Amino acid sequence: MIHFEHPGYLWFLLVVAACTALWILLRRLSRRRLEKFADRNMHARLVPDASVWRPAFKFGLLMLAATFMIIAIANPQEGSKLVKGERLGSDIAVCLDISNSMMAEDIQPNRLERSKRIVSNLLGALGSDRVSLVVFAGSSYIQMPLTSDYSAVKLFLDQVDCSLISAQGTAIGEAIEKAMETFGYGDPDREWKKNQGRAIVIISDGENFEDDAESAAREAAAEGVRICTIGMGLPEGTPIPEYRGRQRMGYKRDRRGNTVTTRLDEATLTAIAHAGKGVYVRATNVNSGVQEIVHLIEKLEKENYGEAVFSEYESLYQYPAAAALVCLLAEVLIFERRNRKVDFDKILRKGQ
């Protein structure tokens, strides 16, 4: 069965289709203008060397070449055999802030939904790493223990919302402790081995009111765990919407009736990342910062998770690439004007 290594590039085939449709439209408009100038039977006398089929054939070759090149870039692959090999990876704990401030809409559609998309993008960039999911607000709990089943993580991720934890606030330090538990730290039934193959990724707006997150980050770093933070929101501040079901009822207000605003606390998140010997990145509507996190994860020590069976694929990009070159060469060798010795236009007309 053939599949594509980079299927996203196949969307460019729509550009090829659009160019073809535009060319056909312009061709018809040009023909109508010419018919206004002279009768169709006079065209051959006015422009004796003009060919009806050659320009269309040349354009078709160009579009065919573009199609083959797009397919080659998408890299079609065919599974040839199953091979056994070692599964090496790191342990990654994702701590997701689900406090009410994460419903702010300074990042579209809101901070929480954008955070969930970032987690999905992170999972898509990882290889054989194991991942756990911790959600936190004023308290925290383990939503998903360590697993290599990313589809299960995404399934649990879809169920995350701000109503999962009633205690509001932002206890980042407790979330770090819960993440360490998913690694087996402090568990009397599991042997703890200090290594450099673990990382915690905290996604939050940084408004930490509950505990000393920096101390928790230092303790984790002392055990070889790297702490990375991703900041959600804008430093300028924005109101927190309140909902009843799916209907927005307004914005959150304090006891005096003033609108409560939430802002990104980059200083706190930067300090936590520094204490945890990791990196801080700020997410925007355009950039999620995932690549910087993945770059750090790739440098972590890898642990052998045992033997695994992998599909070994054979790339077939060279065939559509060769077809594209043939089409381009044919397009160059074919002239738009008629060949008086071999008139293909007359041959085609006789065949009709």
Protein topology:
Layout: E1 2-4, H1 13-37, H2 43-46, H3 53-74, E2 76-89, E3 91-97, H4 111-125, E4 130-136, E5 140-147, H5 150-158, H6 172-182, E6 198-204, H7 213-222, E7 225-231, E8 238-239, E9 241-244, E10 247-251, E11 261-262, H8 266-275, E12 280-282, H9 290-298, E13 303-315, H10 318-333, H11 344-351
Parallel strand pairs: 3-4, 3-6, 6-7, 7-12
Antiparallel strand pairs: 1-2, 2-13, 4-5, 8-11, 9-10
Short recap of the structure:
The protein is an alpha/beta fold and about 350 residues long. Helix content is about 40%, strand content about 25%. The longest helix is centred in the N-terminal third of the chain and has 25 residues, at about 15-35.
Number of strands: 13
Outline type: flat
Give the fraction of residues assigned to helices: 25-40%
Which series of helices and strands comes N to C? EHHHEEHEEHHEHEEEEEHEHEHH
Oligomeric state of the chains in view:
single chain
Give the distance, in angstroms, between the N- and C-terminal Cα atoms. Answer: 40 Å
What this model shows, in words?
This protein starts with a strand and ends with a helix. Strands 5-4-3-6-7-12 form a 6-stranded mixed sheet, sandwiched between helices. A 3-stranded antiparallel sheet has the order 1-2-13, covered by helices on one side. A two-stranded antiparallel ribbon has the order 8-11. By secondary structure, the chain is of the alpha/beta class. Helix 3 runs antiparallel to helix 10. The longest helix is centred in the first third of the chain and has 25 residues. The chain is 39% helix and 23% strand. Strand 6, helix 7 and strand 7 form a beta-alpha-beta unit. The chain is built from 11 helices and 13 strands. 30% of the residues are buried.
